[in-house]
Amino acid sequence: MSALKYWLWLTELPGLTNQTRLALLQHFPTPEDVYYAEAEEVLLTEGITREQAILLENKDCAAADRILADCQRLNVNILTLQDAGYPNRLRNIYDPPCLLYVRGRLPAFDDEAAVAVVGTRDCTPYGVSCAEKLGHGLAAGGAVVVSGLARGIDS
Questions:
Q1: pLDDT tens readout for residues 137-155
Q2: Most buried among 48, 62, 104, 105, using CB within 10 Å?
């Protein structure tokens, strides 16, 4: 299994928060080490509960396989928190995402203006239109437009 597939397994595992994932990555060198860890070792991770350790026993990688296939089909690259190309400005925030999905060229994120797109999950057609115009205008003006790609206005 590829290193990236272990990252996808960890990030797609239901019931874990990003903070839990980050705690595991502080304790274990890689997601592959988390994948193969025994529950007793996982429980030595600060802040990890028995319930969370049980969740990690789920080794199903179907979601990871789907994401890898979709990213390949859509020409989307995935950066992990441990990749050299992961932006330092983002890596050093309180709760950095474990993965970044990049379509197109990743700009010099650490040096350029960046704008995050956030909004409601239940958006109106007018809201979608405004968000599209705003996002396109900002990108055309040279800003890096960042989205979590959650369902709703920012997807």
A1: 888 888 877 766 566 665 5
A2: 48
DSSP state of 98: S
Strands (E), 5-86: 76-80
- pLDDT tens digit string along 10-60? 999 999 999 999 999 999 999 999 999 999 999 999 989 999 999 999 999
| Nearest CA among 104, 108, 105, 106 for reference residue 89 | 108
Measure CA 27 to chain center.
Answer: 19
* Domain segments of the chain as ranges: 3-100, 112-147
Residues 6+ apart with CB under 8 A from 25: 31, 34, 81, 82, 98
* Contacts for 100 with CB less than 8 Å, ≥ 6 apart: 78, 79, 86, 87, 90
